Amino acid sequence: MRFDLSVLVPHLGFLASGAMLTAAVCGLALVGSVVLGMAVAIARTSSGGWARRAAYAYVDLFRNVPFIVQLFFFYYGLPEIGIYIDAFTTGVIALSIAGGAYASDAIRAGILAIDNGILEAAEVSGLSKRVTFTRIVLPIALRTSVRPLGSVLINMILTSSILSTITLNELTGQAKIVASDTFRPFEVYFVLLVVYAALTYLVSIGIALLHRRLNRDLMGQVS
Amino acid sequence: MLNVENVRKTFGAVTVLDGVNLTVKPGEVVSVLGSSGSGKSTLIRCINGLERLDGGRITVDGFDVSRPKELAEARKRSGTVFQLFNLYPHMTALRNITLAPIEVLKRPKAEAEAEGRALLASVGLEDRADAYPAQLSGGQRQRVGICRALAMKPSYLLLDEVTSALDPEMTAEVLNILAKLAGNGTTMVFVTHEIEFARQISDRIVFLEKGVLLVDLPTRDFFAQDGGLAQPRVAQFLSKMRKD
């Protein structure tokens, strides 16, 4: 067989629309998983009670179940009990919930790494727990967890390809259609490999730059 | 008045403070000497409420630090400067100083910043207001730490080995500031290993040994042969520190 990428030219717009959908789903799910991860990290570092136990149960559950099973449960299972959610929303919610479990780990580690002396300084100066958390703990924790959160995002981009199984035609879904239309799976999936690799590579560069920028004032800090 | 009455503090089986009594009157500078592990830092941490007492009572201007409802008032009256600075690493020097006045004392931002800048100027850091802690030298960081404590206008300044993490040159920077503060009537409890400096600025010197307050004397008497030096442990400590 002949390797000929030019057969894909008529389908580039179609594939690009899939890539845009991937970006949209992942963008929204990133926000969702960081917000959820933050809430869960707060609960996990809190001093006990049902919130802490619920947070641990959530993290353990969603990290130990295959993503495709979670997705099918939301998309094919919930309608049986009368809950209908469209494919796009289901994708965003499922990725947010799965990503949130990992994001909470990253943020929790950032919270636990904060030097206790800094918290004592806040405490003796009379700052309330709320102010200490929102002004000191969270900003420091988010800065230090930028890199691990970046891994969560990259994982999310990769995992989003599974959304094609619930009729959401993001990049992988569109590619499947092009492959069956053109009978050229080798070229199509070759392009898909390159595009995903390029996408995640660009994201990781972006994260490295963001990390450096956010932590520029912390560089050289004697811990 | 800062009152420490018969305070006991234990960590597990170890008694760190064993019936300590201490009174600090407004305007006084009291230095706390003693070898490492004698309980000096723990005493400071009991006064600012970071450690729970196992016995006795500490009141700051009448507010009991062991009573949760009074602790906030007690803390408003004391400011702590830490050995390792403990600045907020993600905030500029100025923000480090203004955070608590704005959040706790509800001071208007502009006022708090003007006062913060004035404080920085008083320690020779007027041009470093926008620098982050990591961009400052150790001595500069500690001067910011002192400003942060002073910004709350405390009645008592608690200094916990504030020069122990600094080299001699930076130590001198910080001690100069403290001498100035002592000169204008700031009340201080000064936990330190800087014996000569303590002698210059203190009204009184107390000596802790294994959690017991062995000596509490006016500075001149502390260094007199028939005063503090009559205590063998004090004499031994002073001669050892001077040799080092």
Automatic annotation (TrEMBL), chain A:
Record-level GO BP terms: amino acid transport
Keywords: Amino-acid transport, Cell membrane, Membrane, Transmembrane, Transmembrane helix, Transport
Membrane topology: Multi-pass membrane protein
Record-linked SUPFAM superfamilies: MetI-like
Source taxon at top rank: Bacteria
InterPro entries registered for this protein in UniProt: AA_ABC_transptr_permease_3TM, ArtM/GltK/GlnP/TcyL/YhdX-like, MetI-like, MetI-like_sf
Subcellular location per the Swiss-Prot or TrEMBL entry: Cell inner membrane; Cell membrane
Key word Transmembrane helix present: yes
Transmembrane segments: 20-43, 55-75, 81-103, 149-168, 188-210
Domain ABC transmembrane type-1 residues, every copy: 19-211
Gene Ontology cellular component annotations, sorted alphabetically: ATP-binding cassette (ABC) transporter complex
Single GO MF descriptor: transmembrane transporter activity
Protein task: Part of the binding-protein-dependent transport system for glutamine; probably responsible for the translocation of the substrate across the membrane.
Protein family per UniProt: Belongs to the binding-protein-dependent transport system permease family. HisMQ subfamily.
PANTHER family: GLUTAMINE TRANSPORT SYSTEM PERMEASE PROTEIN GLNP, MEMBRANE COMPONENT OF AMINO ACID ABC TRANSPORTER
Name recorded for this polypeptide: ABC transporter permease protein
Organism from which the protein derives: Rubellimicrobium mesophilum DSM 19309
TrEMBL record, chain B:
Alphabetical keyword list: Amino-acid transport, ATP-binding, Cell membrane, Membrane, Nucleotide-binding, Transport
All copies of domain ABC transporter, residue ranges: 2-235
Annotated coiled-coil segments of the chain: none
Protein's UniProt keywords contain NAD: no
InterPro entries: AAA+_ATPase (IPR003593), ABC_ATPase_HisP-typ (IPR030679), ABC_transporter-like_ATP-bd (IPR003439), ABC_transporter-like_CS (IPR017871), MetN_ABC_transporter-like (IPR050086), P-loop_NTPase (IPR027417)
The protein's name: ABC transporter related protein
GO cellular component, as recorded: plasma membrane
Gene3D superfamilies: P-loop containing nucleotide triphosphate hydrolases (3.40.50.300)
Keyword Transport: yes
